[in-house]
Amino acid sequence: MSPLIDRHGRTKRKLRISLTDRCNFRCTYCMPEHPDWLPRSSLLDRGEVVRLAGLFVDSGIDQIRLTGGEPLLRRDLLECVREIGALRERGLRRLSMTTNASRIAPKARELVAAGIDDFNVSLDAIDPDTFRRLTLREIAPVLDGIDALTDAGANIKLNAVVIRGDNEKDIVPLLEWAMARGIPLRYIEYMPLDAPGHWKRDAVVSEADMLAAIGVSHRVDHQPRSSDPATPYLVDGHYPLGIISTVSNPFCSTCDRLRLTATGELFTCLFSPLGTPLGARMREGVSEEVLGEQVRRAVWLKDAGYAARPGPVDRPVTMHAMGG
Questions:
Q1: In this structure, are residues 291 and 282 in contact, taking their beta carbons and an 8 Å threshold?
Q2: How many CB atoms lie within 10 A of CB 35?
Q3: Which end of the chain is more exposed for a tag (fewer CB within 10 A), N or C?
């Protein structure tokens, strides 16, 4: 089968699958303090998740990342991991997970054994008070989860969203904490995706601002870019740092990602106003062939991205339901 290519010539290789819209954190840039959860009956069951994952693998997707919400809130998470992992026989090369790690400690070894190749852990600050203000939760369980993943031999990467007035003072302390432990870190510019709709451009700490802050006490060298959304840097000659600069320096021209919500709605771009309801069509009984045609059409019509139409996106699906 031919690869999934959009009208801008970008081939899709990576799929984010949201396993649930539920999350035990209340990160201020992601969701309201009291969110309205989707009815559980509307969420894909495990068989539906695996069926859609297989459809995408058969269409050329070879990397899948499980997201949420918080995927550890999914009761059948291990079964999902094992059954999606079985798609390696059909072409899947990598299975990853994004998590806040607060509940992962008891399951770290099981998840690694079940087939998760790498974990992205959200950690927006290393200062406990700053972390609490951003997430309305405590940092200790997250640090315990990171330790458990390390002990299990997991590949880990840290993600940190930087917001002016909230955690920009943690840029260097978090970097130095991660460097001391040899855990790669990616900083992410604050994007206009927050559920309350209060994003403001002046709250964005740009890539240039982050580099300036780090450069006061560390040497930072730019590295060649790939299709990855993060611009790579080497700190002090040895430590890998990435910065995702969607707002100040969009990477849309190399985007190879698709997103599937917990209800099975396909979004070809993080900023797409509309999705394709694959889950609903599947429940109506449409064939694999028809679903595949809908995927190809949606991918082909994918917009140029944030670079072509910057600013907040207006849609009913919020970030915690979209998946990171």
A1: yes
A2: 17
A3: N
| Cα(47)–Cα(140) distance, integer angstroms | 35
The token pair that represents 278 in the structure block: 């694959």
- Between CA 175 and CA 149 the distance in angstroms is 19
- Cis amide bond preceding 69, omega within 30: yes
Tens of pLDDT, residue by residue, the chain (324 residues)? 688 999 999 999 999 999 999 999 998 887 776 788 889 999 999 999 999 999 999 999 999 999 999 999 999 999 999 999 999 999 999 999 999 999 999 999 999 999 999 999 999 999 999 999 999 999 999 999 999 999 999 999 999 999 999 999 999 999 999 999 999 999 999 987 765 567 788 899 999 999 999 999 999 999 998 878 899 999 999 999 999 998 888 778 889 999 999 999 999 988 888 899 999 999 999 999 999 999 999 999 998 877 666 766 666 666 666 666
Reading the block at residue 287, the tokens are: 């064939």
Spell out the SS3 assignment of the chain. Answer: CCCCECCCCCECCEEEEECCCCCCCCCCCCCCCCCCCCCHHHCCCHHHHHHHHHHHHHCCCCEEEEECCCHHHCCCHHHHHHHHHHHHHHCCCEEEEEECCCCCHHHHHHHHHHCCCEEEEECCCCCHHHHHHHHCCCCHHHHHHHHHHHHCCCEEEEEEEEECCCCHHHHHHHHHHHHHHCCCEEEEECCCCCCCCCCCHHHECCHHHHHHHHHCCCCEEECCCCCCCCEEEEECCCEEEEEECCCCCCCHHHCCEEEECCCCEEECCCCCCCCEEHHHHHHCCCCHHHHHHHHHHHHHCCCCCCCCCCCCCCCCCCHHHHCC
Contact by Cβ (8 Å): 154, 108: yes
